[in-house]
């Protein structure tokens, strides 16, 4: 446990220091959402109808933006060699890295959501619903994204490949995340059904992600 | 300093073959190393010195043959008992010297020495709070050496360990290696320059 805790703490520290990835994601999220009302125009009803989708897209793209560096930096400076050699199972190390990434890059997105909801003319309930679905759904984005990040290290192709690999995996998360938020705002579905599926997607990726990423990293040893 | 807490160990490879990118680097390689012994792996560029170290460290899968450690901790695999000091130094520029070292000590676990003492030994005690990004190449190497001292492991796999070290640094490092060997440790080093301690030569690849 000490080892995993040390890994989580190190990754969060690096992300929060100057040049780390944590702020970049939030800034990107902020930019996308702030620009959207200017692009859509001053139709408040339309804006609040598009709101959840815009917030979800922004969060999805922001998390993609920082995910590809998850293993790349460790690979480049040789840390990944030592992590592979250590007594900590690689699967758990991957899970710890994903947790650290979510805490440093995913959680700030959720914290920023209520503020950004104001810009999109969302009321308190709608903003709360979007924040809740993001809280349930972003772990799935991180843990499936981790698989792509591990493959990007293995295949030496970097960011573009990663986006291509991860996007299809994140589409169900996007669909059910937006569906659950829309259910609260316009209906007619209930909130429960899509939200349960969203939670299920997160739980499944929590299990599969670390194993798939570790397998990919082992395969790519060189 | 306390001992490594293990008896005699013996590292042996039988008929080890290495294939990189479809090309056979070496094959049928036999080697042995025992407690208190340093093996200097020599050979021309591209003969597979680094590959051999990475095979022992479990970072490459051998195309043939076996590598085994006898007499070590039966609970642990060979890579878990090895320190690998490669070209890349596994340091995070954003973290301070002390943070880098304490992370590896916490993460690698096992028997550990005193981090502050290790930093003093390698001559970095004045720079503990400096971000590792500001260190020179030689200082980075010294910090990597502090990792070997802080986390106790019987087998040291060193890839060009004296690179970037100044003369005083090489002497200091020679002393550290001698101390490690006297405590029953083992060193396998890939090197072009003389290692600075008594060592047995293992030549791989065809003669140049």
- Report the span from N to C terminus of chain B: 43 Å
Q: Helicity level of chain A, as a percent range?
A: over 70%
Work out the strand percent of chain A. Answer: under 5%
Order of helices and strands of chain B: EEEHEEHHHEHEE
Outline of this structure?
The complex is a heterodimer of chains A (222) and B (208). Chain A has helices at 2-16, 22-40, 44-67, 69-76, 79-85, 90-119, 124-155, 159-185, 192-219.
Description:
The complex is a heterodimer of chains A (222) and B (208). With 222 residues, chain A is mostly helical. Helix content of chain A is 86%, strand content 0%. Chain A is built from nine helices and no strands. The mean pLDDT of chain A is 87. With 208 residues, chain B is an alpha/beta fold. Chain B has a single domain, classed as Rossmann fold (3-Layer(aba) Sandwich). Chain B is 27% helix and 25% strand. Chain B has helices spanning 49-56, 97-108, 115-121, 137-150, 167-182, and strands at residues 10-20, 23-34, 38-42, 64-70, 82-85, 155-159, 186-190, 200-203. In chain B, strands 5-6-7-3-8 form a five-stranded parallel sheet, with helices on both faces. A three-stranded antiparallel sheet of chain B has the order 2-1-4, with helices on one face. In chain B, a hairpin with a 2-residue loop joins strand 1 and strand 2 (23-34). Chain B is globular and about 50 Å long. The N and C termini of chain B lie far apart (43 Å). The interface between A and B is medium-sized, with 27 and 29 residues.
Q: How would you describe this structure in keywords?
A:
heterodimer; A: about 220 residues; mainly alpha; about 85% helix; B: about 210 residues; alpha/beta; Rossmann fold; 5-stranded parallel β-sheet; 5 helices
């Amino acid at each position: 446990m000490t080892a995993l805790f040390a890994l989580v703490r190190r990754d969060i520290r690096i992300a929060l220091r100057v040049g780390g990835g944590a702020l970049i994601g939030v800034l990107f999220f902020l930019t996308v959402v702030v620009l959207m009302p200017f692009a859509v125009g001053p139709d408040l009803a339309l804006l609040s109808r598009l709101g959840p989708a815009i917030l979800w897209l922004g969060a999805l793209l922001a998390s993609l933006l920082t995910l590809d560096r998850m293993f790349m930096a460790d690979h480049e400076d040789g840390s990944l060699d030592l992590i592979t050699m250590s007594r900590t199972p690689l699967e758990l190390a991957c899970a710890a890295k994903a947790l650290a990434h979510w805490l440093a890059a995913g959680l700030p997105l959720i914290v920023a959501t209520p503020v950004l909801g104001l810009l999109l003319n969302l009321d308190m309930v709608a903003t709360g619903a979007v924040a809740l679905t993001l809280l349930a759904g972003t772990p799935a984005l991180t843990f499936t994204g981790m698989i792509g990040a591990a493959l990007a290290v293995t295949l030496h192709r970097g960011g573009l490949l990663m986006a291509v690999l991860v996007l299809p995996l994140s589409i169900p998360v996007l669909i059910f995340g937006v569906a659950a938020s829309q259910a609260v705002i316009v209906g007619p579905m209930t909130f429960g059904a899509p939200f349960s599926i969203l939670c299920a997607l997160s739980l499944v990726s929590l299990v599969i992600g670390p194993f798939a990423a570790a397998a990919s990293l082992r395969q790519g040893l060189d | 300093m306390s001992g490594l807490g293990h008896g005699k160990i013996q590292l042996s490879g039988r008929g080890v073959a290495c294939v990189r990118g479809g090309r056979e680097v070496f094959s049928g390689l036999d080697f042995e190393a025992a407690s208190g012994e340093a093996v200097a792996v020599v050979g021309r560029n591209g003969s597979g010195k680094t590959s051999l170290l990475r095979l022992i460290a479990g970072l490459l899968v051998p195309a043939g043959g076996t590598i085994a450690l006898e007499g070590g901790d039966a609970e642990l695999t060979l890579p878990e008992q090895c320190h690998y000091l490669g070209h890349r130094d596994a340091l995070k520029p954003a973290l301070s010297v002390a943070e880098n070292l304490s992370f590896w000590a916490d993460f690698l676990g096992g028997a550990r020495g005193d981090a502050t003492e290790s930093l003093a030994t390698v001559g970095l005690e004045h720079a503990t709070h400096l971000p590792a990004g500001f260190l020179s190449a030689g200082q980075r190497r010294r910090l990597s050496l502090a990792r070997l001292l802080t986390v106790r492991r019987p087998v040291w796999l060193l890839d060009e360990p004296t690179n970037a070290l100044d003369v005083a640094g090489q002497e200091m490092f020679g002393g550290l290696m001698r101390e490690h060997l006297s405590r029953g440790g083992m060193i396998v080093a890939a090197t072009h320059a003389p290692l600075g301690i008594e060592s047995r030569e293992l030549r791989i690849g065809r003669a140049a």
